[in-house]
Amino acid sequence: MYTLAWTAAGSVLLWRSLPEVPRLPPEYLLFAALSVAGHLFFVLELPGDMRLSLQAILAPVWLYGWRAGPPLFFLTAPLVLRNSRDPLRTLLYFGNGSVWVAAAGALFEWMRPAPLDSFTWAGVAALLLSGCTFVAGNLVTAAVGRYLATGDLRLLRTRFLAQSALFVFAGYVPLASLLLLALHTGPAAAFLAVGVWLLTAVALKGLVETHRHNERLQEALRELERLAITDPLTGLWNRRHFVQVMAGELPRHARTGRSLSLLVVDLRSLKHINDAYGHETGDRALQLAAEVFRQRLRASDLAFRIGGDEFALLLPETGTAGALSLARDLVLLLAASVLDEAPTARLDATVGVATYPEHGQDPDSLVAAADAALYRAREQGTSVAAAAEPSLRELQDLPDSPHGL
């Protein structure tokens, strides 16, 4: 309905404009050719899948009146359909452009205080205001149309509209003004102005495409960085990211004076699942464990897969009591989880708990304390154990940690 309303308005303006076209001077064909060239060679993609074709549409309207504009939008509508393959988008382009170019032309005719071949500040103001009317109206109408088609609210944000309006204004108003002045100067100046228009169009297209390619490159680099610190099987952070986060979290908690707890989780039943049901089922067991962690942990907690069947859970601003409570919950939740591929299999886990600063004051010692607690839980036949405050002798007697940083 939105598109059809604009199309109906544009059709009325076209119907009123067509009788005037045969009376226009031959130079009007130059603007028709520039409009076609703009859609064939100089279509720019703006954010939000907005598209801008560099056509000198304002110059003929300033020269010959508002009726010179709608026929050019009708002429180039098939090219928009060719580029977008979207009939509704093409109809909105025709109706939207026709309405706002007519509004800009009517405003210019009303404001123009003197003939076009004489320079006045009032004439410059008429050019600027009519150009702003066309740019703002055209852009907002198109953005609303794209929002209705995609549901993307970013298209209606003030910042996006302001940035796009500045770009569209730069691509339309100065070049159209240059063509206007050149046609009043003489044929040589007109040819020069057309050359400037072509060079500017090429430069703007190159600028926009370079910016778009740079954005895609940055997105690809961000994705590569994410993949480099993510475990591909579970989607949790990997060991590399665990080392990086530990190096940053301990100094932060040292500044705030708050506790930080580390849970080292050993999914001890994974070997039995792999042997009895196959490695695909074992992979599903690891994924199921990761799902349990994501559902139970807070948004501020971090989960890592640091080994084949081992996970590390980092709990900011959490003391030993809270960490032990969470560890027991996780053991119960894992044991209650059911693998569709192996309904009788259990996800049995052992958890070692260590807390900064009482169990370790640097990443290596904190991980060693959590590992020691894990070994103690295994030896005692329990599921959860917390690290004790180590003496110097105990630290020297600890086995080398497989998780040491």
Entry summary:
The protein is an alpha/beta fold.
Span of the ends, CA to CA: 63 Å
- The value of Rg in angstroms is 34 Å
Helix-and-strand structural type: alpha/beta
How would the global form be characterised?
A: elongated
Based on the structure given, which CATH architecture of the largest domain is correct? Orthogonal Bundle
Mean pLDDT equals 84
User: What is the count of β-strands?
Assistant: 8
With strands numbered from the N-terminus, the spatial order across the biggest sheet is: 3-5-6-4-7-8
Helix content: 55-70%
Give the percentage of residues in beta strands. 5-15%
Number of helices: 14
Q: Report the CATH C-level class of the largest domain.
A: Mainly Alpha
Topology-level CATH name of the largest domain = Arp2/3 complex 21 kDa subunit ARPC3
* Integer tally of domains: 2
Stretches where pLDDT falls below 50 for ≥5 residues? 390-405
Give me the strand/helix succession. Answer: HHEEHHHHHHEHEHHEEHEHEH
